[in-house]
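Page 42, continued from yesterday. The earlier attempt failed because a stray header line got pasted into the input along with the sequence. Redoing it now with the clean sequence only.
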Amino acid sequence: MDCVEEKDTEANAPSVVDRYYTRWYRADMKGKPCEDHCILQHSNRICVITLAETHPILQNGRTIKSINYQISNGCSRLNNKVSGKSKRGGQFLTDFAPLCRITCSDETEYTIYSCIRGRLLEVNENILEAPELLLEKPSTDGYIAVILPKFEESKSITENLLSREEFESVVSKRSDAQSQTS
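This time it went through. Structure tokens are written below.
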């Protein structure tokens, strides 16, 4: 009997993401409908940028053709080199700094943005080799980048972001509006 109860508890245990990170959202990024981003904020200030589950890339069984961290001729997020305890050398990003461009097999292209100000600590090079990680595990292995906000800004970075409840409200209003037009 004890074994059954123990297994049941394990099945209902929160994931590492749910246990240690707070989810924040940016809906309709740069005015583009449904292009939602998710920011996972750890208690140590580090933020992981991912796609929100409502992002078009994760809908309708899309497949990814390419992921490009080359933002412009002179700027590649892959050239980001960070060193030391204070993470010197990381590229400084603003809220709307592009992180990468993702092209789907139907040729639609999406730009993924940083959503917050801070230093770029790393980009996920694993998704270049295995883009399906982005589709299968967007909150874990399929993350886009890791950003460290300035210490003095770490409390205020969430001011322009939506909490999970606020985001769910936006998504439900969006689906209500779509069902009315159908």
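Notes: The radius of gyration is 18 Å.
Reminder to self: strip header lines before submitting.
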